[in-house]
Design brief:
The protein has one helix spanning about 70-80; strands at about 5, 10-15, 35-40, 45-55. The strands form two sheets. The protein has a two-stranded antiparallel sheet with strand order 1-2. It has a two-stranded antiparallel sheet with strand order 3-4. β3 and β4 (about 45-55) form a beta hairpin. The protein is mainly beta.
């Protein structure tokens, strides 16, 4: 069963993957993706990302949304290994 929390125009939906198979891509095995305490700074010490943790199960579908310049690309580049944490 999904629970929804709406705060300041941001919608967060939390699901239990054991109860809701509709959140998984059909017929995929995928890989587990985890990050814990991910922090990225520029060479000048400006923080681009601070203490991000996430856990994405194999086959789970996830959307990363937000306003411009909030760090979505930085997160994806870091998880892909293009930026060093």
């Amino acid at each position: 069963m999904a629970s929804t929390n709406v705060t300041e125009g941001i919608k967060t939906v939390m699901t239990d993957p054991t109860q809701n198979e509709g959140e998984r891509a059909p017929g995929t095995s995928g890989v587990l993706l985890q990050a814990k305490g991910l922090t990225i700074q520029t060479r000048a010490g400006v923080s681009l990302l601070s203490d991000l943790s996430l856990h994405i199960e194999p086959g789970e579908l996830v959307a990363l949304t937000g306003l411009s310049r909030l760090g979505k690309s930085v997160i994806l580049q870091s998880l892909a290994g293009l930026l060093q944490p």
